[in-house]
Amino acid sequence: MAQTWSPLFSVIFILSFVATYFSSAQIPNGGARRPMFFPLYFASPKSSRHRQAIEGSYWRRHLKSDLHHLPNARMRLFDDLLSNGYYTTRLYIGTPPQEFALIVDTGSTVTYVPCSNCEHCGKHQDPRFQPDESSTYHPVKCNMDCNCDNDGVNCVYERRYAEMSSSSGVLGEDIISFGNESELVPQRAVFGCENSETGDLYSQRADGIMGLGRGQLSIVDQLIDKKVINDSFSLCYGGMHVGGGAMVLGAIPPPAEMVFSHSDPYRSPYYNIELKEIHVAGEPLKLSPRTFDTKHGTVLDSGTTYAYLPEEAFVAFRDAIIKKSDLKQIHGPDPNYNDVCFSGAGRDVSQLSKTFPEVEMVFSNGQKLSLTPENYLFQHTKVHGAYCLGVFKNGDSTTLLGGIIVRNTLVTYDRENDKIGFLKTNCSELWKTLHIPGAPAPEAFIPTPKSVPAPAPVVSDDNNTAAGMPPTVAPSGLPQKVLPGELQVGLITFDILFSVNYSNMKPNFTELAEFIAHELEINASQVQFLNFFPKGNHSIIRWAISPADSATYMSNATAMNIILQLKEHHVHLPERFGSYELVEWKVEPQIKRTWWEQHFWTVVVGIIITLILGLSTLGVWFVWKRRQNAPNTYRPIGAKVPEQELQQLTLVSNSEA
Predict the structure, then answer these.
(1) Contact 236, 425 (CB under 8 A)
(2) CA nearest neighbour of 342 among 377, 391, 394
(3) Which of 181, 234, 245, 244 has its CA nearest to residue 212?
(4) How far is the C-alpha of 166 from the C-alpha of 594, rounded, in Å?
(5) H-type helices in 327-470, by residue range?
(6) Average pLDDT of the chain?
(7) Rounded distance, CA 311 to CA 291, Å?
(8) What is the pLDDT of residues 276-315, one digit of tens each?
(9) Contact by Cβ (8 Å): 345, 352
């Protein structure tokens, strides 16, 4: 009997999932402030073939789950929500590897980059992909499981998003490398080579999208189908003023403190959670129990910047925050939007919880995720110490939670067990928190010079195995002891790789130095521009930081703090300077000088002053003496003069003459 019903049961569920997929409707952004990379639909009617393949692959993974440990790909995240509206990671495609900055997006199901022959692609931070320069690239030929071009030769893709941007191109297959911090060796994978992009995809600085959603073309699904990673991945976004973060493709041991919500893959193609209530300062919002459970439910989308609630929930949340925050309300940074902003909170993010209330998201299983103010506020860009609500009204009944909600939160998408986990943590110390074998832990010493990371390993085309050296584990954030004792630091020099080619921009290095000094909380005079090196579409700028004018050295702790802030992207720079990466640094100890070396210029200046004074005195004395010896050619009227004997005049007569 069980054998009779099992296939029927499977068929019913498959048909249910396909029907749900077909019924997926558009989710309006309802006044979105930033790009919402939220897929609306697959462009072609033929995409039903993709859905069937996705469903079959997903169902097989659940029936034949391989529980043994597999490697994972540990990857760093860059950029931040305030400046860019997204987070990116570095992905390497081809042989030799070509590097790209891709937005990590759980709402997209395909990974794509601009192709060299793209007819309508914007100018992004890296060069376009050159298929002819990769010895391992192959176009995906037309077949029954894909949409074909007009000539019926190659497979094509097209994606459209809620903010009215789009991407289309051909599908290609090549070696995908995940960087030197990954245990996972490079793998062959299918990706999109763009021929056209519109809207925000055209104007954004990032090169493209890394699709992490559920779908046959998703990079996650492809790696899972190859059985090279477990059916799970994790994202960890840095906090306010920090940016950056980490991503893990594959399973990680869930920390004991992690809270979970069930995620129903059959309800919608998006990652959803079962949100039941929202509490502000311990008090639940007075809402219908089904407020967060309509249409697609509560969707988690890493490619969306802010959070969007149904109108009823947004009004209740906004009013509760205003009621609990005894601050003056001000206008937002952009007059085109009716932002809810507050002034007088101060710049220190760690102190915001004293001014703004704690928020809790309560899941259907009773577990709670606590949100600090940085999870629902963004910094006002024009008023110092002011913040605005990063939660907005959605024109749709769907609840959409973007990246702001999960700042400094490890989010594990456990697809294997249909659940999503959350853990509040410092994302810059993620490896230490997770205790991953072989992963580095932050150290408390000054780093030694560090070079630019080596290119991703080159992979042969046979069996997808790595050629040459094996993949390395993630390098330590700071090496172990490098400067002994309480070393007095005399100078820090470092190179920063910027994602903008400054040779065409003629940047104001003085202004950039002032921004760096402001973020590091040091005097602008301490930051010195040394040199500039163009590197393709990037730029390397060498800087030096010296002790303050009133000091001859920096302490070990001060120098270490400066390096850590630069390395962990705590230095927040304006968007026009692009993203940055600390690639090399050098710490020079204070040089012990002799008395003569320390006072050389003092002595020189003293001698010069003495010579000037001596010569001046001598000159004054010489002038005075000369005046004293000069004959008196003028006498005042009535002045007595000594009598002089008149000389006898001798008259000569005419006769004698």
Answers:
(1) yes
(2) 377
(3) 234
(4) 68
(5) 430-434
(6) 77
(7) 10
(8) 999 999 999 999 989 999 888 899 998 888 999 999 999 9
(9) yes
- If one counts every other C-beta atom within 10 angstroms of the C-beta of residue 228, the result is 18
Joined together, the tokens standing for residue 321 give 């925050």
Max CA pair span of the chain: 179
- Picking from 394, 427, 410, the residue whose alpha carbon sits closest to that of residue 38 is 394
pLDDT tens-place string over residues 72-125: 899 988 877 767 788 899 999 999 999 999 999 999 999 999 999 999 999 999
Q: Which of 451-474 are b and which e, b meaning 16 or more Cβ less than 10 Å from the residue's Cβ?
A: eeeeebbbbeeeebebeeeebebb
φ, ψ for residue 212, nearest 5 deg = -115, 10
pLDDT for residue 582: 83
Segments of 536-578 assigned E as strands: 538-545
Query: For the chain, what percentages of helix, strand and coil (3-state, to nearest 5) are there?
Result: 25, 30, 45
C-alpha distance across the termini of the chain, in Å? 174
**pLDDT-wise least confident of 461-470, 482-491, 606-615:** 461-470
Please tell me the pTM assigned to this model.
0.63
- Give the sheet arrangement for strand 377-379, strand by strand: 328-330, 341-343, 387-389, 377-379
pLDDT interval class at 239 (50, 70, 90): confident
Residue 507: both structure tokens together: 């940047």
Which residue carries 């991503």 as its tokens?
247
The partner residues of 411 in beta bridges, in order of sequence, read 235, 422
Interior angle at CA 58, CA 61 and CA 69, nearest 5: 35
C-alpha span between 341 and 322 (Å, rounded): 9
* Candidate from 203-207, 265-269, 475-479, 630-634 with smallest mean pLDDT: 475-479
Contact 105, 37 (CB under 8 A): yes
**Dihedral angle computed from the Cα positions of residues 82, 210, 88 and 267, in that order, rounded to the nearest 10 degrees:** 40
Give per-residue pLDDT as tens, 350-376: 889 999 999 999 999 999 999 999 999
Nearest to residue 243, comparing CAs of 332, 305, 177?
305
Two tokens, residue 118: 């793209």
Q: How far apart are CA 37 and CA 27, in angstroms?
A: 11
pLDDT tens figures, 386-402: 999 999 999 888 999 99
Cα–Cα distance, 133 to 645 (Å, whole number): 117
- 330 vs 407: CA distance, rounded Å: 25
Measured in whole angstroms, how far is the alpha carbon of residue 357 from the centre of its chain?
A: 27
Task: Tell me which H or E stretch contains 640.
Answer: none
| Separation of alpha carbons 107 and 494, rounded Å | 38
Nearest residue to 269 via CA among 334, 338, 214: 214
Tokens coding 420? 């999503």
Confidence of residue 597 (pLDDT cuts 50, 70, 90): low
Strand partners, 78: 88
Burial of 6 (0-12, 13-18, 19+ CB in 10 A): exposed
DSSP-H helix ranges across 293-374: 311-324
Q: Name the token pair of 642.
A: 């000594």
CA-based angle 152:154:157, to the nearest 5? 105
- In this structure, the chain runs to a length of 657
* CA 395 remoteness from chain centre: 29
Q: Which amino acid is at 146?
A: C
Which residues are bridge partners to 389 per DSSP?
377
